[in-house]
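sorry for the late reply, my laptop died twice this morning and i had to redo everyting from scratch. anyway the thing you sent over, i finally got around to it. pasting the sequence first so we're on the same page, its 186 residues, then the predicted structure underneath. double check i copied it right bc i was rushing
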Amino acid sequence: MGRVSQAQAQENRRRVVETASRLIREQGTQVSVADLMKAAGLTHGGFYKQFASKEQLVGEATAHAFAELGRQYEGGLDRHAGGREAAQRALIDTYLSVEHRDSPADGCPVAALATDVARDGAGEEARRVYAQGVGEFADFLATEDQDGTTRLCTLLGALVLSRATKGSPLSEEILAAARAALTATD
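ok and here's the structure:
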């Protein structure tokens, strides 16, 4: 088998980072390199041609997940005529939905990676990227009346509890209660 072109190597790396971003949100950072590479449609042996370590990949995959989240809420600002408040409302509705609860691989990295990052299972770069992403997300959620960190904690707590109680009526009650609390007007 011949050498891979530089363009193909870049495409392979992009594919591995995107795949890892989804898999670590779905399965956690303990997912094996072999499973990541298989899911990306590449051989395990090619991993170390692209990455110095699994920690490096987890850091890049975490950054990719937060970039996706950022595009979602920044794109909401462009899509909603009501500006920031309408974009925040749409994001809250999406975040606290059954679809988001049931799709961690495509969901918020704040919820999906919190325990792995807290246990040092992700590495220092992933922890740095995670903290930065959490701060930026909280900044987006801030309003004149509500602190963004508090709003993010409500979103995160509700999503995690809803996922943990999935299959019971409580799961959807949690989502609805948090949605009502975050979108109530004075």
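The CA atoms of residues 77 and 83 lie 6 Å apart.
thats about all i looked at so far, will dig more tmrw
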